[in-house]
Design a protein that fits this description.
The complex is a heterodimer of chains A (738) and B (152). Chain A has 738 residues and is α+β, with helices and mostly antiparallel strands. Chain A is built from 18 helices and 27 strands.
């Protein structure tokens, strides 16, 4: 638990709200915290920038600020739930506000790495529990009874002897004068009323009625609009710009060239889009011009001749392989992917002489601000960042390129401007999931035990494309994990479950191959390895063996692993970020093609905060993992993406989804995050199930490029039908939708 | 540029725009109705779906000059108090994740239910297949459309 500076009553602050009310300002989240700022009526209505998480009004309304950007992970609901749980608030009276960037009040205002709940779990609980303690003290004073006789429930302090009740609203003023406790007792999890329950997204109504929540919905008085023409191919730069025709188009205010950008500035989106069509920009070579065919060759060459970086080496790998009874060797490849959040990149910036206002969808508001400060050469405290709701992120909005562009353009124009990217700009504009190829080798002894394991990953701007300390490291005596990097002008970045979103598929498919070669059941094969890692570990073990065994056994049980006739099952288990997810995919053969009918998931993410949100993250993560494994690919020709929009870049749609059944391990461990961990196992589980159904091992994504979806036959003579027809028609053909 | 008189959500509105301006940008840039979303601009994702005389259309590729006297309904006008059976079902089933595509999803579903108040699951899927949800909320979208169909 955090400590509080006893010398100062910095925890609570009394202030007036609209119609009379109190602001309990919380500030123990930062070493720099000062006495909370008084908030006026406008502040209570949502003008942020004060140093607190929580306020209570005299009518009992509880306002909770949620500092982290909301991009669909449901943090705007789950954070306040944690505060409200310990406060014993009446959830129906809670008001939630998205905080603006405030690094003095909040730590880690970041959405990424599935880290928000793990990071803030105790802080948020302390925020609620401390306020509850002070409300009890205030009631004890008022009634002149010992605090121990008082309890709380749904926004009231209750005298357990007399049954008398005082509302939090009635107590807030007195409570604000109570000494801030140094430590508070947190609830026992068995007493949770909100945490672990299915609580609805607080923004549902606003979303379902079309309220202006997103960055693209920002319109300000006097605001200009702009789009930017960027180099269409990686490895090129501007040679010349002829903007005369574009400038002459109706509604166009200016055409501005900066860095490798040509910004068309106007009054409305469509006029800008039309002017872009007559803008003439010539580009010239500035670096390597690469195509996907080049990458295929580069992968093969570097797998053979590249100078590897050794990431982990245990035992004597060479001897293990020369003395092996059997060696299994296999290669897997994954393409570049676009993040393609439904809301394209956009940002609003207003650079004024006295300060800068930034508004937009970002996963990293603090980075947007520090970049703007560097760009403009001004102190950070002159810049405010308002965080809008994000129409998806998937890692794309961890980059600040698009906020920087808006900042720079506004400073050039000396006017407020919103820069909007078209879908094509987004898909052609970089920061992709890197493309990677792996070579795996396994040595088996005469009893089918894996005695040696090698993985070499070659990535294009991938950084380290392995996770060298993940399973099966620790479970194999002789192991070598190494990587080779190819530097390319094609920009890459974190894409939901970075690295593991493709590594897990490759590795879990390969382990399935090894289990098959060893003549062992894939689940039992993993469990035996995990047991070995536990009893006779090799080197450092940086995953929790018991949690991995736990999800493996749970999914096997729930899916009826090994007991079902008629459904082909594939298994996969993966540890990513801090959580563990095992999946079993079921495939049926329909019209001579494999159809993914169902996916079972067992998740250990520690304590589940919001069951509804958690299920969404698992279903969404699996759907995301399945969709990209099956359908999506970004390929290049002469440095330019061949897919530019959703007509050729295929995303998963409703007809393609299997049934999904989700289970959580109930172990009371503090939350370990769930925004990403359900995604990585899906590709492997599906590929392994397809292998079971067809005998064909798919070794590259997207799976639907494989012949197995064109001309295969079932390994069994009879066509197997699912027990219940899950969805109409085969989903496996590319469908053009209009 | 020309002045277009449009009937939007039961109101008579006017926009002074070029004749090829897509309805999407008229709504967003000129009429302040930003609930209708831009997703792809080529009628592939469904985020921009509105109703034209009750039928679902992709507003990103519909030129304002083609609208004439047709009645336009956007997400803002689907119901007076946000209580269309679909809007209620979206909350009941807790559908949204990021939420960006959901206005388009709801408008597509609303046109379906208007034409076919009790669709089969196949019919729901066949219709909703045209709308992309990048978060993958499809299971709950399907469930919510089904639920709403029982309340009509």
């Amino acid at each position: 638990m955090s400590t509080v500076n006893k010398s100062r009553r910095e925890f609570l602050k009394l202030t007036s709200l609209t119609g009379g009310g109190l602001m309990l300002g919380f500030s123990w989240f930062s070493a720099e915290a000062k006495a909370p700022v008084v908030v006026d009526a406008a502040g209570a209505a949502g003008s942020l920038g004060f140093n607190s998480y929580l306020s209570i009004a005299t009518d009992g309304t509880i306002t909770i600020l949620s500092p982290n950007p909301e991009l669909g992970q449901n943090i705007l609901t789950s954070f306040p739930m944690i505060v409200a749980e310990e406060l014993d608030a009446d959830w129906t009276k809670v008001k939630v506000l998205q905080a603006a960037l405030d690094t003095k009040a909040f730590e880690r205002q970041v959405t990424g790495g599935s880290g928000a709940v793990p990071h803030s779990w105790k802080r948020l609980r302390n925020a609620g529990a401390t306020a509850r303690h002070m409300l009890i003290q205030a009631a004890a004073k008022k009634w002149n009874v010992p605090a121990e006789e008082l309890t709380t429930s749904d926004g009231f302090v209750i005298n357990s002897k007399t049954g008398n009740k005082l509302s939090y609203g009635d107590l807030a003023e007195e409570a604000s004068k109570v000494e801030v406790p140094k430590e508070v007792k947190l609830k026992d999890r068995k007493d949770f009323k909100l945490i672990g329950k299915a609580v609805k997204n607080v923004a549902n109504k606003d979303i379902a009625t079309g309220k202006p929540l997103f960055g693209l919905d920002v319109y300000r008085e006097g605001m200009l609009q702009a789009m930017i023409q960027r180099p269409p191919a990686f490895g090129t730069k501007i040679k010349s710009v002829d903007a005369a025709a574009a400038k002459a188009m109706p509604g166009i205010i200016d055409v501005v060239t900066f860095r490798n950008n040509v910004a068309i500035v106007g009054k409305s989106t469509w006029e800008i889009m039309k002017a872009r069509k007559v803008l003439k920009v010539e580009y010239e070579k500035s670096g390597n011009i690469e195509s996907t065919a080049d990458h295929d060759n580069i992968f093969k060459t570097l797998l053979e001749t590249g100078t590897p970086t050794v990431r982990r080496k245990d035992g004597d790998v060479e001897t293990a392989f020369t003395s092996a009874a059997k060696v299994v060797k296999s290669e897997y490849q994954c393409p570049f992917l676009s993040h393609s959040p439904m809301e394209p990149m956009n940002f609003f910036a207003h650079v004024r002489p006295d300060g800068v206002e930034l508004v937009g969808p970002t996963q990293v508001p603090a980075a947007a601000r520090s970049d703007a400060a560097k760009l403009l050469g001004i102190p950070e405290d002159k810049i405010t960042v308002e965080i809008t709701r994000l129409g998806g992120g998937f890692g794309r909005r961890l980059k600040t390129d698009y906020s920087n562009e808006a900042t720079e353009l506004s400073s050039i124009l000396k006017a407020p401007v919103k820069v909007t990217w078209l879908r094509e700009d987004d898909m052609m504009g970089g920061s992709y999931r890197p493309a990677v190829r792996y070579r795996f080798e396994a040595a088996l002894d005469a009893n089918g035990n894996m005695t040696g394991y090698k993985c070499r990953g070659v990535g294009i701007n991938s950084g380290n494309p392995t996770r060298e300390d993940n399973f099966p490291s620790g479970a194999v005596e002789n192991l070598l994990i190494e990587t080779v990097e190819h530097a390319s002008p094609i920009t890459t970045g974190a894409w939901r479950a970075p690295i593991t979103n493709f590594l897990a598929y490759a590795e879990q498919s390969f382990l399935d191959e090894v289990a098959n070669a060893a003549g062992k059941d894939p689940v039992q094969f993993r469990l035996a390895l995990l047991q070995k890692a536990k009893t006779t570990p090799t080197g450092a073990i940086k995953y929790d063996i018991d949690r991995m065994i736990g999800v493996t056994k749970l999914v096997a049980e729930k899916s009826g692993w090994g007991t079902k006739k008629g459904n082909f099952q594939g298994f996969s288990v993966y540890f990513s970020h801090r959580s563990y997810v095992a999946q079993v995919a079921e495939v049926v053969i329909k019209n001579n093609k494999p159809v993914i009918s169902k996916i079972y998931a067992a998740c250990d993410c520690g304590e589940v905060v919001n069951l509804s949100g958690a299920r969404q993250q698992v279903m969404g993560g699996i759907t995301d993992g399945l969709g990209h494994a099956m359908y999506s690919k970004l390929s290049f020709k002469d440095g330019e993406t061949q897919q530019k929009n959703f007509d050729t870049y295929r995303l998963i749609r409703m007809r393609d989804i299997p049934e999904i059944e989700t289970h959580f391990v109930d172990n009371g461990i503090d939350p370990t995050g769930l925004g990403e961990p359900a995604l990585p196992p899906t590709g492997g589980a599906v590929a392994n199930a397809i292998f079971k159904a067809t005998g064909k091992r798919i070794k590259s994504q997207p799976f639907t490029d494989d012949d197995v979806f064109k001309t295969i036959r079932a390994t069994q003579p009879k066509t197997i039908q699912p027990k219940k027809a899950p969805l109409p028609k085969s989903s496996l053909k590319r469908t053009k939708v209009s | 540029m020309a002045k277009y008189k449009l009937q939007v959500n039961g109101k008579n509105l006017e926009a002074d725009v070029a004749e090829d301006t897509p309805l999407l940008w008229v709504l967003r840039d000129h009429l302040g109705l930003v609930g209708t979303k831009y997703g792809c601009g080529i009628a592939q994702c469904g985020a921009c779906t509105v109703h034209l005389n009750g039928a679902a259309v992709r507003s990103c590729t519909l030129p304002v000059s083609a609208i004439g006297s047709s009645k336009i309904t956007t997400i803002e006008g689907l119901s007076e108090n946000g209580d269309h059976p679909l809007q209620l079902a979206w909350d009941e089933v807790d559908v949204p994740q990021c939420g960006y595509c959901q206005a388009g999803q709801i408008m597509t579903a609303a046109a379906l239910l208007k034409q076919n108040p009790h669709p089969t699951t196949d019919e729901i899927v066949g219709t909703m297949h045209g709308n992309i949800c990048r978060c993958g909320a499809y299971h709950r979208i399907r469930e919510a459309v089904k639920l709403a169909s029982t309340k009509i």
